Amino acid sequence: EWHQCVAYGATADYTAKIQSGAHVFLEGELTYREYDRTVETDSGPVKVPWPITEIVIDSITVIARKDKQERSGAA
To answer: Which of 23, 30, 42, 55 is in the most buried spot, having the most CB atoms within 10 Å?
Structure first.
């Protein structure tokens, strides 16, 4: 399952240094918020409340991955 995650401050700066495809362990707080979104209808644009659930990241730990040889069982 995929989750929306957000990071602020130093944590956000650190995420820019993580390589794409890296395995990470995230700790954070589940938050709920909503904003008004404009939706087009037959009678014109209407503002509706739009809920968002996301995880605000407190800490990130990069998990070391084993080499391909170790994973396949080759010596």
So the answer is: 55
